[in-house]
Design goal:
The chain is α+β, with helices and mostly antiparallel strands. It is 30% helix and 30% strand. Strands 1, 2, 3, 4, 5, 6, 7 and 8 form an eight-stranded antiparallel β-sheet that branches. A hairpin with a 6-residue loop joins strand 4 and strand 5. The longest helix has 21 residues. The termini are far apart.
């Protein structure tokens, strides 16, 4: 979904004013940690406290809102970061720090709430950023699952 600069400014103002903002997930880039339709709560982004594996909400130059994990901050130019979706094999970047809207703190799934500082969430973030081949394994699983569903529905 595309957003204009006024909408981006409104999102930034909302986080600054209220300290947080809820948005529904609308893609599969962070699957299985975040699924389409989960409600994600973001808080203000702070470069001083962000760490590898944290999930950040940012906007692209075309106005797209995306949520990806922080891989690293560019040491040569610390105003840029590199990010990665859990299903993406490669990093995305450089992304300017001023494009970051917020940091994920909770995910409201249908039956439970997941906190980004839970041990399971931290471990998942560690493994998915440390071992990028896991993204390919997840993609294979999704393809297999979809084929299996199609076969079941045709029976």
């Amino acid at each position: 979904m595309q957003f204009n600069q006024d909408t981006i400014d409104l999102l930034l103002h909302t986080i600054k004013t209220y300290g947080w903002m809820d948005l529904p997930a609308s893609s599969m880039s962070m699957y299985p940690f975040i699924k389409e339709g989960n409600i994600c709560r973001y808080t203000k982004f702070d470069l001083k406290t962000v760490k590898r594996g944290d999930i950040l909400l940012y906007y692209t130059s075309s106005g797209q809102l995306l949520t990806h994990r922080l891989l690293y901050i560019d040491k040569a130019n610390p105003k840029y970061v590199f990010l990665k979706g859990d299903l993406n094999s490669k990093s995305i970047g450089p992304i300017e720090i001023n494009q970051i809207i917020g940091k994920l703190i909770t995910i409201d799934k249908k039956k439970k709430k997941v906190y980004s500082n839970d041990l399971k969430a931290i471990l998942w973030g560690y493994f998915i950023t440390k071992f990028p081949f896991l993204s390919n394994i997840i993609k294979i699983y999704i393809r297999f699952k979809n084929k299996f569903r199609k076969r079941l529905s045709s029976i």
